[in-house]
From TrEMBL, chains A, B:
Domain Gfo/Idh/MocA-like oxidoreductase N-terminal: 3-117
Stretches assigned to the GFO/IDH/MocA-like oxidoreductase domain: 156-248
A matching Pfam family: GFO_IDH_MocA_C3
Provenance organism: Periweissella fabalis
GO molecular function terms listed in the Swiss-Prot or TrEMBL record: nucleotide binding
InterPro entries: Gfo/Idh/MocA-like_OxRdtase_N, GFO_IDH_MocA-like_dom, NAD(P)-bd_dom_sf
Name of the protein: Gfo/Idh/MocA family oxidoreductase
Amino acid sequence: MVLKVGTIGTSWITEQFIEAILASREYDLGAIYSRDASKAKVINEKFATNATAFTDLTAFFASDIDVVYIASPNALHYRQILQAIENDKHVIVEKPAVITPMQFEMVYSKLREHPNVRFFEAARHIHQPNFKKIAAQIEKMEQIQGATFVYNKYSSRFDDFLAGKNPNVFNPDFAGGAIEDLGVYPIYAAVALFGLPKDAQYFATKLSNGADGRGTAILRYPEFDVTLIFGKNSNSYLASEIYGLEDSIVIDSIAELTSILYHHNPTEAEQIADLPHENPMLAEVTVFAEIINNFDLHNQEYRDLLMLSQRVNNVIYQLRQTAALSFPADQEK
Amino acid sequence: MVLKVGTIGTSWITEQFIEAILASREYDLGAIYSRDASKAKVINEKFATNATAFTDLTAFFASDIDVVYIASPNALHYRQILQAIENDKHVIVEKPAVITPMQFEMVYSKLREHPNVRFFEAARHIHQPNFKKIAAQIEKMEQIQGATFVYNKYSSRFDDFLAGKNPNVFNPDFAGGAIEDLGVYPIYAAVALFGLPKDAQYFATKLSNGADGRGTAILRYPEFDVTLIFGKNSNSYLASEIYGLEDSIVIDSIAELTSILYHHNPTEAEQIADLPHENPMLAEVTVFAEIINNFDLHNQEYRDLLMLSQRVNNVIYQLRQTAALSFPADQEK
């Protein structure tokens, strides 16, 4: 069944998502929510689609769409997820899906009331074929002794921050900062590959407004530690790495996964990545459609993804506590 | 004045040191201590020197050498340093010079009793011209937001460890493990460039005998954190990095300093390293000879090096405490 999608949010990531769903041939674009109706027109023209424009969220949710894609600012996800589930729409929400474990519990509880609704966090990288190549290589290695995952890119919004403005992505009032943005990628990768850590600690370098501009997080597992380096106010040129004995997996970017070099030792290496599809969201939307359309075949896979999503939510929350990083959502009852 | 050197230890590093002092033309090799007299013969033949062989340490210290180079196992440094100072010999000792802050205090106290003796820790990398280029580049950058220093190399001795042997370099009874070996390089670099951290924490991955096979250390400064990744039981293929805003300094190896790329932004970079001398110890031995021979001109530089050495000793000790890594030297009164 071709799934009818409605989108919330009209930034570049929504356009990348629309391109991916159309390329997958599993979805149609049925509705576009934006406070500014002209944005829907631009999108319909760009993608040769005929989606209905909504400026009212209630009307949007009442329409005949099957799936809602949520790419609004992080702090708005939670209410929109609940509203989507209440309207029996499947949900694909950008990471981080929600901010607190309590919010996640509420979403989970709402899903139990609507057992035919599927909920997906759009962690695009873990659905890439190249991510599965990393997981398979880890299985083959004699011993794993840790990892370092890096995702650190200077955001042009930091120019605004330095100019005295208070952009949302660096504003704690909107759950802004590094960990809730680029940090999600390395955290998702670590939890997907190695499971829930037994302990976690975050060393955040804070900006004057209390947001984390960058930081280093340590995830502690029984046999090894994983070091995560992420930030939005500086650039890193380092790769990511999984340590074996003499061998190591070196990944150009833990979010893009373009190159995966398996170093047998310091003198021998082989490329194990395939050339990824140019749209990095194609893999995930294909997986989500398959789960929605053939749920009985993928019940366990769906539960695993939901569990992973909850674990990531928990780890991020725990890391924030260790760095005394709090958001308004933390105070919600 | 050409300085007459006596060496303790006959491994590859002593040979590299001898090559460096001869290349500098500031030193002669006068004495070689080894329990095995045949080793002195091998060295004299290899370097066309005529050093006296000693198998007795007391006789070695009583000989007419000016400088003692100590490259024995770490746990033996302390007693040998004290003995050298008592015999009014200048000391060049491999890093880590000593294991505990108390040992450092005792060395310092002994130096006060022998005011004409100079004491140097052989942290070769911080004396390299390329290290000074890094320091100069940092001065020019608008803002420093942290750093990641990596030094992680698989040791062939780890094969022995895995085979059930207990090699010294992985044995806590001999102050073995990653932090007291390769870890010294990134720690020295961080403290030399950024000073004493206000806090420090070490996440060690321990071996079955309690030694740290590898680990991640966080040095916390008022404005940023420095992440150090080091180990002896795995290989890393990552560079080291100092974060600015859009700009970053990327160093191929924080110990070797062969390439230093200053990235203005993700698309523009310039190489600021000079080709280093093939012997990485030449720079330090030249500096040490100059300080010894013209002390009045270099009094402050000498005090700064001594202070740096003490700070590094303190930081390593503090890091070990946070990882519950203890050595027999910690129990000494």
